[in-house]
Queue: 3 jobs
Job 1
Amino acid sequence: MGFEPTVAKGDTAFRERHHEPLGHLSSPIVDYTTSPHYISYTLYELSPDIVSLSILLAQTLVWLKFLACLVIILFAGTKLARYGDVIAEKTGLGGIWIGLVLLAAVTSVPELVTGVSSATLVGPEVGPDLALGTLLGSCMFNLTILALLDILHRRTPFLSEVKLRHIASAGMGILLIAIAGGSIFAGERLSGLAVGWVGVPSIIILILYLVAMWRMFRFERNHSLPPLNNAAPQYEKESMKAVYFKFALAAAAVIGAGIWVSFI
């Protein structure tokens, strides 16, 4: 290749031995020191077969990571729902508030990380669109899951059995999305309506969410239903400390796997 390694005089066997093709590899680019017994191979020109095999192994590794994340999320998510049910019974808050706040917050952390990464690490030309698309797309997909739940819930239509209290959370979700949509429609006309660098619509969304969650918390605590026919609590033998610990472990697994899958 137009490059002559430096070797001791008379060591022709050494020269010939290291200029022969190495099996399925082409001739190496070598960098010899002045000592004929010190060889440093810095680069090999790989054959197309080696490159194709490397790409296949990399793709297989990606799919294995994805499947591992999926298994972790499925297993830990099942445990998370069960421990959330135990907490709802033990605290008397009911499944509505636990699902609306506690479980929703845990399962939304990966989206939070992805959105923050998109808004801060990606360029200003693409970052805001990517972050908002992630959040709105997640809302749309989560609501689409209702169709799957209705298919799996074979007794009656799924939405016909939920409590009317969910109307409040549904209405609040509509209001928050309407504020976000109105801000997007207004565009630059609202650019001056800000507190520092934070837009007033974002502040309104945050305040409305916190107020709504607080009101729902008080309502669920004051209107918790007693067990039917004086039945014993389903999780009476469960220890609260153990439940909180197991819930934290399941939440950490779901959050970790969710963040990991977003970077695969």
Job 2
Amino acid sequence: MLLDPGLLAKLGLLPDAAAPATFAVGLSEFKKLVSHDLEHLLNTKRHASRTELAGFRQAERSLTAYGIEDFSAKYFENVLDVADICRAIAHTVQTFEPRLQQVQVRAEQVTKTVGGLGLTIVGLLVAPGVREPIRFDAVFDIITKKYAISAH
């Protein structure tokens, strides 16, 4: 199947730097590419807050708004803070990852015991000839302040 590998592959930032802009990949490889791009998106801090960009409709989709908000002031044991984090991540993914639609983010209790926050990101993977549900497991490590993501 002929699929768009994503921005990072096009820029040569994936292991196979000689890959053309569009190439044939299998569905499992395509999911890995989306997972990789999603991990980079969530590990990028946005430069401007939503309130700073209020009133500038196009700015919300620009590089200035790319990435997620800084959640360092949030407390992972607080249900309201975790709900805010989930909403913000869902909004960011919906805005900057066009291959995913109907994105929902849920917090998972499992990884809280190891010093992080576990999230499940579900949505619909959409590409030419592809329209299928997908799930990503994301773990935020509070020490490294980085997300690690895997697709299922």
Job 3
Amino acid sequence: MHYRPRQKPLKTLVFQLRKSASHLSNLKGNRVQQIIVKSPFYLVIQPVCRGARQPMSMEHVRELVLTDAPATERRRWPFSLSLRLAWRNLTQDRIRFGATVAGVSFSVILMTIQISLLLGFASTASSLVDRADADFWVAAVGARDVDQSGEIAARLRYLALDVPGVAAAQELVVRFIPWKRPDGGTELVIVVGADLNDPLLRPWNLVSGSIDDLHRPNGVIIDTLYAEKLGVHEIGDTVEINGHRARVVGFTRGVRTFTQAPYVFTSLENAKTFADIATNNAVYLLVKARPEADQQFVRNGLAARLPNLEVWSSAAFSWQTMRYWLSSTGAGAALILAAVLGLIVGTITVAQTLYATTMERISEYAALRAIGAPARYLYSVILKQALLSAAVGYAVGMACAVILVRAADNSNLSLMLPPWLAVGVGGLTAIMCAGAAMISIRRAVKADPAMVFN
């Protein structure tokens, strides 16, 4: 370290280091009487004075020497080094930094997984509506979700076809009914029966068998995620659905349900038989409008032609189904509450760590204040410590969250992690850590410069 000698000796000099400080011990001796404060970047020393000691002056203390800096920069404050100082402050105590990263990571994982669960549950609850190639759902009055609705007359389909702008109208059956496993146990399933002639709703993610196989008498398709639960091992297994014989003719993969009662896809005729619904009745009418038709005009026409029924647009019925299941079961509130708790835990963890780190180095912040560091410089150092903690914790936490989401692909648990959620959690983590730094910033700014000489 080099500094320019002065004609008048100083009581105390403050140096900013831009290189390694490992050789500072060599300063003691003929030139330095005492090293008062030493940090990764700053050194406050008390030089040996010739003759009687002079009174200490704050003007002396405010003399700043920048190693290897041009003379024109010696009065400027080096904001470019604040990031390095923030990083070294964090990593000097690696155990504490690890605890901070763990706290932030836990918060990120908790928030991401809970919101992913919420999105997954919402998507699963309305999957039948979202997967149907229909613009409108006609249901009995009082229908609040796709899985539960009363019966309507099947002949009303012809009235719907007479509405201008309607391209197709098909019957659909959706019913909760009991499924008897080969071992005698019973499970509740949701039978979904659609018209197999150019159906507006068909099984998706089919991995074995085909939709044409549903034309076979009593043929059904189930999902591989629920095969063990339903006692099915392979295509061709026979079971009993509400007292009627059924045969498994295919499998889907990843077709989940919110209620954990598996979807069982079959033909419209089989579904009416399994659910004991009369052949002249149905549960829904699926209506598809012509591409050139005005959606609102078609909806108004259906409502006028079918006054005793409810006409839902697909988007509205999907939202209604999601809202019903998430609100009526309390699942939505529980998941949101868990995400908020994760945010609170992360904020408290970061706030405690940053405050402890600030208090341990309070004399160094006092030295910065003594040599004229503006308040915004301290703001910059501590805020960058918080953002560095947020960045490292977010990277670790999001990596773990992605692994958990991928691991859930082969389970009954539905997790969704869209890109906007990852970005949103990242921004929320940065805000959380920046807010946690406010207490530390106030304490550092209020540090008394006289602490340097105590």
